[in-house]
Write a structure and sequence with these properties.
Elements lengths: L2 H13 L9 H12 L1 H4 L4 H15 L13 H6 L14 H9 L6
Helix pairs in contact: 1-4, 2-4
């Protein structure tokens, strides 16, 4: 799995959106954001709220998955998941895969 796909999978995991049910993105986002909003829970939940917003933007196409910073933080993603659920493992970048696969052809 490439990094772009794994970040999209993490965004789905954070919001609790199952694959193929993208029509529920907005509803799931609002239900999750009300749980972790800093106005209700205090300033300690600011990072979690920012991650939820970033996941929502990734799934709605407002930002590119590779421009995300918070969704690459394993500790923060795990804090939003149910107990015992591990975050989706991040894949490698497509450019790195090309270099590994075809390095013999592009040696300097």
């Amino acid at each position: 799995m490439f990094r772009k796909d794994s970040i999209i999978a993490r965004a789905r995991q954070v919001l609790g959106v199952e694959k193929g049910l993208e029509v529920n993105i907005k509803k799931r986002f609002f239900s999750r954001i009300t749980l972790y909003h800093p106005d209700k829970q205090g300033p300690l939940y600011k990072e979690r709220t920012e991650m939820l917003i970033e996941a929502y933007h990734v799934l709605t196409g407002r930002i590119k998955p590779l421009d995300c910073k918070l969704l690459e933080n394993d500790r923060l993603v795990a804090s939003l998941l149910p107990a015992g659920v591990k975050p989706v493992k991040l894949g490698m970048k497509y450019e790195d895969w090309l270099k590994d696969r075809f390095y013999d052809f592009v040696k300097p």
